[in-house]
Every structure is written in structure tokens, then in C-alpha cells.
Amino acid sequence: MTESAQRVLSSAPEMSADTQERERERERARGAAALRREYASVVPIGRSLESNTSSAEQTEAQKPSLRRATGECTSSCLNGGWCVHPDSCNCTLYQATGTHCQTVPNIGFEREMTCRSWGQYNYETFDGLYYYFPGKCSYTLLKDCEDSTRSSVHIQVHNDPECSSFPYSCTRSISLFLPWEGEIRLQNFSVTFKGQSVQLPHHIHDVELQRISDYIVVSQPQGFTLAWQGFTGSVYIKMSPEFVGHTCGLCGNFNADTQDDLKTSYGKFY
């Protein structure tokens, strides 16, 4: 609850249970609206883009609600996010590229300096490359691979190994490792540090953790801001400019070039 709302409520007459519940709903709505403004560039799949661009001006690649791949694809072709028969694999949908038409470039300004992952298997890099990766292990989502910034960070995503045909309901978690010892773990709406439960809001060194509406927000000054959606396991990450060209992992290398985002630690491109 905001400070101004607290002042108003503290000075108001005692409210009934129904009135209090309505106030809580309004406060949650205000918190959600504030988060949408902060993360207007990282709208989850199936929701409209909040921008000044009209729908007529948006390219097909900027309409994520049409790019969902449901469940695991048993075919060898992911035609721009749709699981299709190999005979129809022509990479024409959303200008898809890659061996299996599994990547979709998104050069819209809505994705600037933002990486996101949702539905366990869907990813979009800082540079705007969308791809489908049905992995069921733990992976490096983001890492400062040159250790040259002032705020080195390593973020891992732990996918559900038992996830089957309903990836949007699978349980996953996120781990954050910073220069000081200890793991910050986010799962559902629980937060642990070094295995011990943490109550929000909370500070760990220069990292702030707080809950805003349905999100757990982790932020570090001059470093990064991470929003974790506890219900769906969706994650959105914004980085400061000092990380440009220094990152690696599933979020890409943050250099404004989608062509080299799928580069492994061995230097191989996919």
C-alpha cells in the first residue's frame, strides 16, 4: 500500500469488512497499474501492447498473442512459434529463421533493454529475438560473462522436469547470484536467501526485494530490475546500459543484434 493511501486510511473512520475489502482491491489495482507502466515494454503473451503505436502500425512480429506454441512440439518444425508438420515448414510466418523456424526477430522499441520468459518454454532476448526452447533443466538466463561491470550478476531459471503438455501451469523458479555469497531463490511467491525464508519488503546488501501486486520485484541500483510473476512463473528483466554487450545466456548478449543471440559458451550459433 502506498504511503498516501496509508495516511488516508489511518485518518478515516473505521470501515466495514466489505469496505475494507473494496479498498484492498482498489489498492491492488493501483499497484498493478503502476507495474504495467514500469513494465509496459514487457507485456505477457496474450495481452495488448501498451504503446503509442496504433494496432495498424504494429508488425505481425510485434503481436505476441499470435505466436504461442502450446505444450511440447512433437514435430520438427516450429513455424514462427506454431507447431506444424515438416512438409509445411517454410519459415514464412513472422519472418521466422533458424533450422526449425524456431526464432522470430522483434525489432520493435517495446522490447528495448528487456528480456522475458513465460510458459516455461518461451523466451525473448534483450535484442528482441523470440524463440521456443523446450528445456526441462536449469539454465543460465543471464550472466555478466566479462565480469567487467560494477554490478556482476548471474540469474538462473529452473524449469520443471515433470512439465508435460501444459507449460503455462508448470512450476519453475529463479535463482539470483551476486558478487557476495548466497543465493536468492524465487518460487511462486516465496523468497529465500541462503535457504532461509525472507519476508518482503527486504534488503540484501544493495538489492531490494518487494511485492507489487502479483509480482515480486528485485532491483539493484545501476544494475538490473527483475519482475517475477509468482502465479505463472513468468520473468521480465531490465538491465542498465553498462551491461550492453557484456551478457550471455538465454537472454542473449544485449548488443542490438539478433543474429548472434543464440551463441553458446563454445562459440557455436543456433
TrEMBL record:
Biased composition regions of type Basic and acidic residues, renumbered to the chain: 19-33
Region: Disordered, residue numbers: 1-33
Limits of the EGF-like domain: 69-102
InterPro entries per UniProt: EGF (IPR000742), Mucin_vWF_Thrombospondin_sf (IPR050780), OTOGL-like_N (IPR058754), VWF_type-D (IPR001846)
Domain of life: Eukaryota
Keywords: Disulfide bond, EGF-like domain, Glycoprotein
PANTHER family, sorted: EXTRACELLULAR MATRIX GLYCOPROTEIN RELATED (PTHR11339)
Protein name: Otogelin
Natural source organism: Anabarilius grahami (Kanglang fish)
Lineage: Eukaryota, Metazoa, Chordata, Craniata, Vertebrata
